[in-house]
Design a protein that fits this description.
About 35% of the residues lie in helices and about 25% in strands. The protein has about 400 residues and is an alpha+beta fold. A seven-stranded antiparallel β-sheet has the order 17-16-13-14-15-12-18.
Length: about 400
């Protein structure tokens, strides 16, 4: 009797992990990865600025699923089977130690994505997973329970099961569509906002440790919070990136035009800010307003806001009027910006959209349209916010797909 054969299309995070999950539970299964590039794991290599944000130290499933604008509900059962704690254990059992940073992101202690790549390549070799590099697939068909894969060099391969792990690439989605799957149009997620505004001009690199944001787009309102970073072209940081993810489709439909409202001091009420000014008036009336920025506002941003309000650089606290204080409070608590477009977040490239989740059995990651056809990773209509959650989707869906294929043997 010939060995059961599995063909995996895509050598990214989810495809590689699916292959290893197949082999680790049944080493007699023959597993082949088809990768269109000359190397595996290209996103792993560049993620996290080359450090690879492997996962996030979020171990409560109910909290974890909230990090996914799309697909959280479907991922819940998978996370009970394989979640961040499991991928941490998986790496550590193979000699790769991970560390958690203050914001919860987890990286290899080496701060190098090559550590993760080398671990995977070693495991693929140990488990005798066949890898076909520079292999673009022309077609996938099924006849008499066997899949036939034809590459662009007219090489034909036969498999008992196929895993599509092609990310957001068009050709992978076209293959899925050919087997009767519905495709939710992919649109960008996790991006920065282009904003042309004098208040943040020439402030690239300035950050605020914690803000509250509200986005108004297409009649919808989205709220997020977290650190804010001013860039050369506008605004970034976790607070903005989370907004871009949860409002990805609305922003796309509005051609990335929206209104953004920022509370720069969410930890302080208007009364707190008013008290700050009244105290300075009473205790330090001759002090210059420009020289004493309130609470957690960076000095350069404080100066820029005052310039925007046309407040004189020599103004002292005993000269400041009630109207000026009100205007300043408006900028600190309800600064309104016009979003004019989207930028790029180089550490993580993610799309919202893909194969409709209604057509996937999440107990196995198998297609409901075609037996022995499996999916994992970003090809599905699942995406997470920044912080390692998209890789966790890859590990969890790859694991379940790989384990479930054994049931077909």
């Amino acid at each position: 009797m010939s060995a059961f054969r599995v063909g995996i299309i895509g050598g990214g995070a989810s495809g590689v992990f699916a292959a290893l999950s197949v082999k680790e539970q049944n080493r007699h299964i023959q597993c082949t990865i088809f990768e269109s590039a000359s190397e595996l794991l290209d996103k792993v290599k560049i993620s996290g600025g080359g450090r690879c944000n492997v996962t996030h130290n979020c171990f409560e499933v109910r909290e974890l699923i909230q990090k996914y604008p799309r697909g959280g509900k479907e991922l819940q059962s998978l996370f009970y089977r394989f979640q961040p704690e499991d991928i941490i254990d998986w790496f550590e059992s193979r000699g790769v130690e991970l560390k958690a940073e203050d914001d919860g992101r987890m990286f290899p202690v080496t701060d190098s994505s090559q550590t993760i790549i080398d671990c995977f390549l070693d495991e693929l070799q140990k488990n005798q997973v066949e890898i076909k590099y520079n292999s673009r697939i022309a077609s996938i068909s099924k006849s008499d329970s066997k899949f036939k894969i034809l590459d662009l060099h007219d090489n034909e391969y036969e498999f008992d099961a196929v895993v599509l792990a092609t990310g957001s690439s068009k050709y992978g989605l076209q293959f899925a569509e050919s087997f009767g799957h519905t495709i939710i149009k992919p649109v960008p997620s996790l991006f920065t906002f282009k904003i042309n505004d004098t208040r943040i001009k020439d402030l690239s690199g300035v950050s605020v440790s914690y803000v509250e944001t509200r986005l108004e787009v297409g009649g919808e309102k989205f709220k997020e919070q977290g650190p804010l970073l001013i860039t050369h072209w506008g605004l970034s940081g976790p607070a903005i990136l989370k907004l871009s993810a949860f409002a990805a489709r609305e922003l796309h439909e509005s051609r990335y035009k929206a209104e953004l409202i920022i509370n720069l001091l969410p930890g302080y009420s208007e009364d707190d800010i008013s008290t700050f000014f009244q105290k300075q008036k009473a205790e330090s009336p001759k002090k210059i307003v420009y020289n004493l920025h309130p609470h957690d506002i960076p000095k350069r941003l404080w100066h820029s806001l005052l310039q925007y309000l046309a407040i004189n650089e020599t103004l002292t606290f005993n000269q400041i009027s009630a109207k000026m204080i009100q205007q300043i409070m408006q900028q600190l608590h309800n600064a309104r910006f016009t979003v004019g477009g989207k930028g790029v977040f180089k550490e993580e490239f993610v799309t919202a959209g893909g194969i409709s989740l209604k057509e996937i059995d999440f107990k196995t990651m198998q297609s409901k349209q075609c037996a022995n056809l499996y999916f994992c990773g970003e090809i599905l209509d699942i995406d997470g916010i920044t912080g390692g959650f998209n890789f966790q989707n890859a590990w969890s869906t790859g694991y379940v797909a790989g384990c479930s294929i054994l049931k077909s043997d």
